[in-house]
Every structure is written in structure tokens, then in C-alpha cells.
């Protein structure tokens, strides 16, 4: 492992892109070379970025990629999983090593296979579905099941802001603005921690707390009924909807906390209870994701230098590759 800096391009200037930028500022071994955005003006308007060294590139002009590829070790793709990454991922994998946070769980095998084919052909390395779930939570689920054979894994999210569910309520007719919090049910957590290995339904594990501002003339009762009965989002949960002013919602949107737990419960020997618990608590969900993506960019660069091409997930990477420290330092200070 060398002492050279990893040169990074941020692709997409939303919440996650800004989170990656904050993580780069805290990582002396990283260097921001470029920000690539389809809305170049919005990036330029963000005054704290203008340092005279970072290049702001228009993501609408893909011919720029070939020109800039030699200047970048890893491109971190910060677009959304629904529409951005399935299109952008294979394109950027032609020109760069890439890291992304694709998080549509059911589609991860298909997306990973697509990225593997493109990146392997072009002798690039792609780390897909990085973040905290999927990502660090995935690691904990695999490790827990490996260390306690026959165990059961339980995942709880929150309390925190769910960006996808917040978007869902903002799309409801009559809603001016809204935000949604996912909250673990304390009773369910206690049951799992007791080692009783309970069977828990979706409704028993989490509640959904929605806060909305209504458009003028909106039917309050109709809006609330639409939200609590929304399939795939709220109908399987105990959901509350609270009406607030636009100013109150805007204030809530200034902070985006999230977190959660992964618990692995089982037994060793004949009947000795065993429990592993891992907890995340993030004051800023986007900055948490950005920090993990930077660690993965470090690993991606190292893997590519070793000729390990194709797609990887956080499950495939040696833990030492995420760290800026040398192996000698890790053995001395962290073992």
C-alpha cells in the first residue's frame, strides 16, 4: 500500500454527494479532483466548494469522461437507486473504478452482475451497494450467522428519517411537504435481546411516524387515509400522521438522523444462549453514507492496483483495505 493520495470524483451533487465531500475533508489520504453534476450551476452556487482546485464538470456531456479518466482513481456515484445508478453505473464503469450505494435489496444480484461484466471487461474495479444497509449491516448479518451457526438475524432501523418513505408521502395528492421517521418497537427489541428468538411481523418490529404540511384546500382525512393505507410503504405498519406547518416541516428537514441495530440470536453447544448486537447511530444519514463510501473508495483503489477487477461488495473486501492505516499499525494499535 502506497502513501499516495486516492484521487476522487464525486458524481451527483445531492445529499450523499455533499456527505462524500465532508468525508474527503476529514481524510488526509483523499484528494477531490472533480465534481460531476447534471446541474453544474447548483454546484457552483455552493460557495464552500470553490477552492480553485476542484473541477466542476457537466454530467450531461459524457465525452468529458474519457478526457478526465486518467486524473481520477475512483468515481463515487451518488445518484439514486431507482433511476440514476442503473443507467449511470455501467457508463461510468467504462471509464473509472467506481463506488456506489445501490440499495434496492431485491435487485442487488442483477445490478452487481451488470457492473461486474462492464468493469471487468475494462479492467476496472466496482464496489456496489456500499453504505450502512446494505453495507455495514450486511457485514454484521453475515458475520453473526457465521459465528453463531443456525442463528436468526434481526434488523431494526431507526429512529431516523427514511428518505424513500418521505418521498412517498410528499407524492400524495394534497401534501405540500412531509417527512417520515422509522421507529423500532421497544417491546420487539426487548424480546430479541432476551434470546427468545421470537417470530416478529413487520408491524411488530417498526412504527412509521409521518409529519406533513397540507396544500390549501386539501382534504385532511382523505390525505391521512391515503398515507396509512399505502401498499409497500405504510399499510403493513402502525402509522401515525401529524399535521404541521410548512415552517415546522422545513425545520425537521434540516437534520437527517438515522441508525439502527443488527442482532444475531442463537445458541452455542447444547443450550447456551448467544447474542451479538451491532448498533449504528448517525446524526446525519447522508454524511454517514459518505464516510463509508470514502472508505470503500480507498479499498477500491487498492484492489484495482492489485489487478482485482470486476464488481465487489463490502462482503468481499478484507477489512484492512478500508483503513488508511498500514497493516503494521493495525496489528499494533487495533488488534
List keywords for this structure.
single chain, about 325 residues, alpha/beta, Rossmann fold, Dihydrodipicolinate Reductase, domain 2, seven-stranded parallel β-sheet, four-stranded mixed β-sheet, 13 helices, 14 strands, about 35% helix, about 25% strand, globular
Please explain how this structure is put together.
- The chain has 335 residues and is α/β, with parallel strands linked by helices.
- It has 2 domains: 6-134 and 286-333, NAD(P)-binding Rossmann-like Domain (Rossmann fold); 137-283, 2-Layer Sandwich (Dihydrodipicolinate Reductase, domain 2), CATH 3.30.360.
- 37% of the residues lie in helices and 26% in strands.
- The protein has helices at residues 15-25, 40-45, 63-68, 84-95, 108-121, 136-147, 163-170, 186-193, 202-205, 220-228, 246-252, 285-305, 327-333, and strands at residues 6-11, 30-37, 55-58, 74-77, 97-100, 125-127, 152-157, 160-161, 175-184, 206-214, 238-243, 258-268, 272-282, 310-312.
- The strands form 3 sheets. The protein has a 7-stranded parallel β-sheet, sandwiched between helices. Strands 8-9-10-11 form a 4-stranded mixed β-sheet, sandwiched between helices.
- The longest helix has 21 residues, at 285-305.
- The chain is globular and about 55 Å long.
Amino acid at each position: 500500500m502506497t502513501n499516495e493520495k486516492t484521487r476522487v470524483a464525486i458524481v451527483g451533487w445531492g445529499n450523499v454527494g455533499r456527505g462524500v465531500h465532508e468525508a474527503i475533508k476529514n481524510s488526509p489520504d483523499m484528494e477531490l479532483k472533480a465534481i460531476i453534476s447534471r446541474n453544474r450551476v447548483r454546484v457552483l452556487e455552493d460557495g464552500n466548494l470553490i477552492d480553485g482546485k476542484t473541477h466542476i464538470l457537466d454530467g450531461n456531456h459524457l465525452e468529458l469522461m474519457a478526457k478526465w479518466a486518467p486524473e481520477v482513481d475512483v468515481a463515487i456515484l451518488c445518484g439514486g437507486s431507482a433511476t440514476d445508478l442503473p443507467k449511470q453505473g455501467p457508463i461510468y464503469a467504462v471509464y473509472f473504478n467506481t463506488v456506489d450505494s445501490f440499495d434496492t435489496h431485491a435487485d442487488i444480484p442483477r445490478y452487481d452482475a451488470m457492473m461486474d461484466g462492464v468493469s471487468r471487461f475494462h479492467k476496472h474495479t466496482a464496489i456496489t451497494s456500499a453504505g450502512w444497509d446494505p453495507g455495514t449491516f450486511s457485514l454484521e448479518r453475515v458475520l453473526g450467522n457465521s459465528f453463531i451457526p443456525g442463528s436468526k438475524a434481526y434488523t431494526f432501523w431507526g429512529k431516523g428519517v427514511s428518505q424513500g418513505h418521505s418521498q412517498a408521502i410528499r407524492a400524495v395528492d394534497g401534501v405540500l411537504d412531509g417527512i417520515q421517521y422509522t421507529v423500532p418497537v421497544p417491546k420487539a427489541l426487548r424480546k430479541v435481546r432476551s434470546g427468545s428468538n421470537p417470530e416478529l411481523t413487520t408491524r411488530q418490529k417498526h412504527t412509521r411516524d409521518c409529519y406533513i404540511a397540507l396544500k390549501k384546500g386539501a382534504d385532511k382525512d382523505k390525505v391521512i387515509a391515503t398515507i396509512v393505507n399505502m401498499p409497500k410503504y405504510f399499510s403493513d405498519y402502525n402509522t401515525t400522521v401529524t399535521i404541521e406547518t410548512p415552517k415546522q416541516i422545513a425545520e425537521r428537514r434540516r437534520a437527517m438522523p438515522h441508525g439502527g441495530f443488527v442482532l444475531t440470536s442463537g445458541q452455542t453447544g447444547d443450550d447456551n444462549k448467544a447474542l451479538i448486537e451491532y448498533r449504528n447511530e448517525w446524526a446525519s444519514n447522508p454524511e454517514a453514507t459518505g464516510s463509508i463510501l470514502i472508505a470503500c473508495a480507498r479499498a477500491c483503489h487498492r484492489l484495482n492496483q492489485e489487478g482485482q477487477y470486476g464488481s465487489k461488495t463490502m462482503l468481499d473486501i478484507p477489512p484492512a483495505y478500508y483503513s488508511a492505516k498500514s497493516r503494521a499499525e493495525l496489528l499494533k494499535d487495533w488488534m
